[in-house]
Automatic annotation (TrEMBL), chain A:
The gene is nqrB. Composed of six subunits; NqrA, NqrB, NqrC, NqrD, NqrE and NqrF. The modification FMN phosphoryl threonine is found at T212. The keyword Metal-binding does not apply. The chain crosses the membrane at residues 58-77, 97-121, 133-163, 257-285, 305-323, 335-353, 359-379. It comes from Labilibaculum euxinus. One of its GO terms (cellular component) is plasma membrane. Keywords: Cell inner membrane, Cell membrane, Flavoprotein, FMN, Ion transport, Membrane, NAD, Phosphoprotein, Sodium, Sodium transport, Translocase, Transmembrane, Transmembrane helix, Transport, Ubiquinone. It is a multi-pass membrane protein. It catalyses: a ubiquinone + n Na(+)(in) + NADH + H(+) = a ubiquinol + n Na(+)(out) + NAD(+). This is Na(+)-translocating NADH-quinone reductase subunit B. HAMAP family: NqrB (MF_00426).
């Protein structure tokens, strides 16, 4: 490592002001600080600092995403071979390799495009490159359909980084979750590639239905009585598969188990807010219960409240999207309200509007927008308590 | 006895090198210095010239905007230098000490029979007033104010902090005299805040003329600002005064001995000290003789006057700061670490559980001054809340200071906080934001706007 350090020290002047490659200073520093935690010491304030930094934080989140990613790779192969009827003849390794071949390009495109833009912006502004995209770059592939054309992934990612993040000033300044901005852009710009039955399974056999459980569930709205029960029995009763993740859907969102492993990592390390995660699930459950109680159509009556939590992107959104500290509520009390409303609205939109079966995305983006308002009221509450104190003592 | 207030929020940072309760002898320091920078917001005006012969208690400089407040020489001798920085700002006034200290005579007196004005006058004249500080703003108290109460924290929870019971040993008379004097300065109460878990000595538990309040918990529970928040929080327009126990002794000595005697015990601690222990010295002393031969020298070190959270870096022949009773020595840590952010980190301390050091909760750490990362914009939320046991929203307050929004700062509690109270917020900050500097900046802004 000493040799590497020496090499960097030797090359560093070239990239500093007045050097030959001064224009690439941000990029050089990004790589340098990636390899070596810098020798900067504290000059004012506390002399010692907590060992954590943004690189550590972000890499923990990426680690928490790994189970969902691995399962996504396996499930991609699994769904493909299931659809073509070859599942029994294919061994585990081939399934994984097939999935990997399908998914790896999406990940590469997301990182290359996103980091490329991040580096360019850092360079333009003379800033350091922020670590935020390490997570966004992994989140974006996991919420895409496996059949997404790579150029669309690239355009969505570019849109998310530029409009979702850089125009606000970069990591820490954005008002919406960048990964969800990418997905929302994709969803509205190329709807045919992100809805319907054919996009969720790679190279699906035409005869095989590739509908997601949410799509089946949406069909419940129009049927009644025994027909509804039959539909439910046929397509929605296998909750174990839904929980484990053997269902069609976006790459990383299908397995509730894998997502929960990620949640445990996030909560145990203290990186993700358990307040948000728990209240999103609580909000979804309460709305589901209300539907169960009110009734009205077969969707509301037949889907138990808890089943909403394992269908579609609900769990993924709750654990990895809603917990984004930048776009979410920042006050402790605000986090409960913010999380609860995300879950509540997601189930509400999902059930009432068949056009948007994947309501989690919209619900989180909506609450991202309202998070500052929630915080505002929490802060006002704190201010009022302080003013009240004066009156009491006066 | 009052009930015990338990503070749960906060963080004890366990560092290696806690001072053993043994009082060692060090060679007497030859030079002493008083640094105006130890008093935030002060504009000093010199009263002496270089080469002047002075006694302990003679004024070196005074506050330009409040000329009654004097800053006295801790020893007798000759002023050998007035070191100045940019724009002729006075950095330090250095005194070469006599072998035998000559004290200026201020007359003994019984504080119980003196009037409030007489006590004030005595403190101002002798230079002891500088030890009385006020909330809000954490600056030297204004003599014309009458505080709603005076608070003394009788324990210190900062990392490796000096044990206050040990500092007060054999000083019972002076301590009580000091408390008696302080009690006269307020119409409210004189609070002495103790920690029942520490088995505090008779000197503290037997103190008279005070209202005892009890606190337990983790750092920053020993900070007087936190205690005030839980006893009688600071509202707009209110003033409270605070003072540390050792400084109460200084005041006591003025009344019992009639002199400005600021000799104090200090703790020499930290992982780079061979045998951490206590020393008898005098305020403002050069640390060279204290450190001589006491340090491990296998690595570049950093000497701090004060503790690792709020102290100030000084050189190895620098001077002890005015309010500090501890010298901490830690490794400098100005080196690169290969893939440091990715290592398991058994030697790294973090409030989060992102490093595997959480498996060994009782380990004592040898931490250096490395930032462990780069400055970033705010990303994480809720970190600050975990280490500030006040009904104050720290992150929102810091943001309001960043945008210099006076109204919001006031509403969010700038009157209640001192930089030291948010030191842990700065420690845990993932984005390495200089919280204490910002709080001080906000306070300076408030003082400017409100005057």
């Amino acid at each position: 490592m000493k040799a590497l350090r020496k090499f960097l020290d030797k090359k560093k002047p070239l990239f500093q002001k007045g050097g030959k490659f001064a224009k690439l200073q941000s990029s050089f520093e990004a790589f340098e600080t990636f390899l070596f935690v810098p020798d900067h010491t504290s000059h004012t304030g506390t002399h010692i600092k907590d060992a954590i930094d943004l690189k550590r934080t972000m890499s923990i989140v990426v680690m928490a995403l790994i189970p969902a990613l691995l399962f996504g790779i396996y499930n991609t192969g699994y769904q493909h071979f299931l659809s073509v009827g070859e599942l029994a003849n294919t061994d585990f390794l081939d399934i994984c390799i097939y999935g990997l071949i399908k998914i790896l390009p999406i990940i590469v495109v997301s990182y290359v495009v996103g980091l490329g833009i991040e580096f360019a912006f850092a360079q333009m502004r003379g800033h350091q490159v922020n670590e935020g995209f390490l997570v966004s770059g992994m989140l974006i592939p996991l919420i895409m359909p496996v059949t997404a054309p790579l150029w669309m992934v690239a355009v969505s990612t570019a849109f998310a980084v530029v409009i979702g993040k850089e125009v606000f000033g970069g990591t820490g300044m954005n008002i919406w979750n960048p990964a969800l901005v990418a997905r929302a852009f994709f969803f509205f710009a190329y709807p045919s590639k992100m809805s319907g039955e054919s996009v969720w399974i790679a190279e699906k056999a035409d005869s095989f239905s590739g509908a997601t459980p949410l799509a089946h569930a949406a069909n419940l709205v129009d049927v009644k009585g025994d027909a509804a029960v039959t539909l439910y029995q046929q397509h929605l009763s296998n909750v174990w598969d839904m929980f484990v993740g053997f269902i069609p859907g976006s790459i990383g969102e299908t397995s509730t188990i894998a997502i929960l492993i990620g949640a445990v990592i996030l909560i145990a390390t203290g990186i993700g807010s358990w307040k948000i995660i728990v209240s999103v699930f609580a909000g979804g459950y309460v709305m589901g219960m209300l539907f169960n109680l009110i009734g009205g159509n077969s969707y509301m009556e037949l889907i138990p409240a808890w089943q909403h939590l394992i269908m579609g992107g609900f769990a993924f959104g709750a654990v990895f999207m809603a917990t984004d500290p930048v776009s979410g509520a920042q006050t402790a009390r605000g986090k409960y309200i913010y999380g609860f409303l995300i879950g509540f609205l997601a189930v509400l939109i999902r059930v009432l509007n068949a056009g948007f079966p994947e309501a989690m995305m919209l619900s989180i983006l909506l609450m991202n927008t309202f998070a500052p308002l929630i915080d505002h009221y929490v802060v006002q509450g704190n201010i009022k308590r302080r003013l009240k104190r004066v009156k009491v003592s006066a | 006895m009052s009930e015990v207030k338990k503070i749960k929020k906060g963080l004890d940072i366990k560092l290696a090198g806690k001072a053993e309760k043994v009082l060692e002898k060090a060679d007497r320091s030859e030079t002493y210095a008083i640094k105006p920078s130890n008093f935030p917001g002060l504009t000093p005006k010199l009263k002496i010239k270089v080469d002047a012969e002075i006694k302990a208690g003679d004024s070196l400089f005074f506050d330009k905007y409040c000329p009654e407040i004097n800053f006295a020489s801790p020893v007798s001798g000759k002023v050998i230098a007035v070191n100045r920085g940019e724009r002729r700002k006075i950095l330090e006034v250095v005194i070469q000490a006599d072998a035998e200290i000559q004290y200026q005579e201020f007359k003994k007196a019984d504080p119980n029979v003196l009037s409030r004005e007489e006590i004030k006058e005595k403190l101002l004249k002798s230079g002891l007033w500088a030890f009385v500080r006020q909330r809000p703003y954490d600056v030297i108290a204004k003599p014309e104010d009458t505080p709603k109460a005076i608070f003394v924290s009788a324990f210190d929870t900062a990392p490796l902090a000096a044990d206050i019971d040990f500092l007060l040993e054999n000083e019972a008379v002076a301590f009580q005299a000091g408390l008696d004097a302080l009690a006269k300065l307020t119409d409210g109460k004189l609070y002495l805040n103790t920690n029942p878990n520490l088995n505090q000595s008779k000197i503290i538990s037997g103190a008279k003329n005070v209202e005892v309040r009890q606190f337990t918990g983790v750092h920053p529970v020993g900070n007087v600002g936190i205690q005030i928040h839980h006893i009688s929080p600071m509202n707009k327009g209110e003033v409270a005064w605070v003072i540390r126990p050792q400084e109460v002794i200084f005041i006591g000595r003025l009344f019992t001995k009639g002199i400005y005697d600021v000799s104090r015990k200090i703790a020499l601690c930290g992982s780079e000290v061979k045998t951490p222990c206590y020393f008898e010295t005098i305020l403002g002393a050069s640390v060279r003789n204290i450190l001589k031969g006491k340090l491990k020298d296998d690595e570049k070190i950093r000497v701090i006057s004060g503790n690792v959270l709020t102290g100030e870096q000084i050189s190895e022949d620098g001077f002890l700061n005015f309010y500090d009773s501890q010298i901490t020595v830690i490794p400098e840590g100005d080196k690169f670490e290969f893939l440091g952010w990715a290592l398991p980190g058994l030697q790294k301390f973090s409030m989060s559980k992102t490093f595997f050091s959480w498996l060994t909760p009782n380990k004592e750490y040898r931490l250096d001054a490395n930032l462990h990362g780069e400055h970033r914009a705010f990303v994480m939320t809720g970190e600050y809340d975990k280490v500030l046991p006040m009904d104050v929203l720290p992150q929102q307050l810091v943001k309001s200071i960043m945008i210099e929004d006076i109204d919001q700062m006031e509403q969010l509690g700038i009157y209640e906080v001192a930089p030291e109270d948010l030191a842990l917020c700065e420690f845990v900050c993932t984005s390495k934001i200089n919280v204490q500097d910002l709080v001080r900046k906000g306070i300076d802004l408030m003082i400017k706007e409100m005057s």
